[in-house]
Structures are given as C-alpha cells and as structure tokens.
Automatic annotation (TrEMBL):
CDD domains the record matches: HAMP
Protein name: Integral membrane sensor signal transduction histidine kinase
Keyword Transmembrane: yes
Molecular function terms from GO: kinase activity
Highest taxon in the source lineage: Bacteria
Species of provenance: Berkelbacteria bacterium GW2011_GWA1_36_9
Length: 238
C-alpha cells in the first residue's frame, strides 16, 4: 500500500519542486535571502501536501484491500463504507454488493445443507427402523426353527426308544408264544386227567398272551403317532 502512496505523492512533490526551480531560474539574480526562506517554506508545504494527497488516495484503497482480504479468508460480513464521492467509493459499493451476494449465497447453501441433512437423517432413521424390524423377524424365525429342530430331535429320540421297546415286546411275545406252544404240546401228551388239571394254567397263559398282544398294539400305535408328528415337523421346516 506504501507503493500507491508513493506513486501519488512523489509526482506531486516533484511537480512542486520543478515549479519552484523553474521560478528561481527565471530571475535568480534578483532573489534575496527572504525569498529563499519563502521558497523553503513553500518546498516544505509542497512535500507535506504531496504526502497528504498520496495518503488521502491510498487510505481508501488500503481499507478496501483489507476488507477484501478478510472476505477471501471467509469473513462474509466484511463491508467497506467510504465517505468520499469518487470512483473508489463506487468501487466500495460494488464490493459491498458482491460481499452481500456471497453472504446470501452461503446462507442459502447452509440452509440447503441443513435441509438435506434433516431429510437424510429422517430416511436413515426409517431405514434403521426397517432393518431392526427385519432383524427382529429373522431372530424370531431363527428361534422358532431352533425350537422345531429341538422338537424334531426329541421326537426322533422318542421314536427310536418306542421302536426299541416295540422290538423288545415283539421278541418277548414271540418267546411267550413259543413257550406256550411247548407247554400245550407237553400238556396234550399227558393223560386227560393231567390235561384237565392243566386247563386253568393254559387259560392264564392265553390271557397273558392277549395282554401282551394288546400292549404290543398300543406300543405300535404310539410309535406310528410319533412318526406322524416327526413327518409333520419336517414338512413345516421345509
């Protein structure tokens, strides 16, 4: 900024000194000491006048440059107010208009960003709620499947146990049948008396056989029921 002041003040000072020198050169023989003293005061006045003129023109430009620097650093509220009525004052008005437009544009951008952030947050929240709901459904479905698998394993274990019991009952029934046959054959080979005396024992054996057959049928029915439940669970899992 000192360069602008020098560029304005130096020519003014030089012009004043040139006028003084030219005036002295015209009639230097007639000049006395008082006149030289007067010329000295005039030279001093010209110097300070030129310096003041340079400062007068440089000060508004310096102020405008400082505000422009603040604006470039992000201070959009920076303004320049000059009392002069010249081109520099018009330049300051233009600068203020540009700063005002930039501030309004920045305010609109911030408002738009806030609006977009609010919309994004709302949509994100809705998506999060949907995801949480889906995760909860998946967890519930997983728990249900785990429960069904556990039931299936339990049914399989019970089915195997019932099948084993059914096999044992059939083997016992077969043994009892064979034993009954042997007893019957032995009793028939004996005398009638002995046969008559053995009739109650045979009846008891027959009754025991009927009970065993009944128990076997019940066991088979329970095993078939368990197998049916297992099949239904498999169909539900599929």
């Amino acid at each position: 900024m000192a360069r602008i002041s020098y560029k304005i003040s130096v020519p003014v000072i030089l012009a004043g000194f040139f006028a003084i020198v030219a005036f002295i050169a015209l009639d230097y023989q007639r000049l006395n000491a008082g006149f030289y003293l007067l010329l000295l005061f005039i030279a001093i006045y010209v110097f300070f006048f030129g310096f003041a003129t340079g400062q007068r023109f440089a000060s508004p430009v310096k102020k405008l440059l400082e505000r422009a620097t603040e604006l470039s650093k992000g201070n959009l509220s920076s303004r320049v107010y000059l009392e002069t009525k010249d081109e520099i004052s018009e330049l300051a008005k233009v600068f203020n208009e540009i700063a005002e437009d930039l501030e309004q544009s920045h305010a609109k951008e911030e408002s738009t960003e806030r609006s977009v952030d609010i919309k994004v947050k709302a949509k994100t929240q809705a998506l999060e709620e949907t995801i949480n709901a889906l995760e909860q459904k998946v967890q519930n479905r997983t728990i249900e499947l785990q429960r069904l698998v556990a039931d299936l394993d339990r049914f399989k274990g019970e089915s195997k146990t019932k099948e084993a019991e059914s096999v044992l009952l059939r083997e016992e029934l077969q043994k009892l049948k064979e034993g009954a046959k042997r007893i019957i054959y032995k009793k028939l080979s004996k005398k009638r008396k002995t046969a008559k005396a053995a009739v109650p024992g045979i009846k008891k054996i027959v009754e025991d056989l009927e009970k065993l057959q009944k128990q076997s049928r019940e066991t088979e029915e329970e095993a078939e029921e368990l197998i049916s439940k297992v099949r239904k669970v498999k169909e539900r899992i599929k």
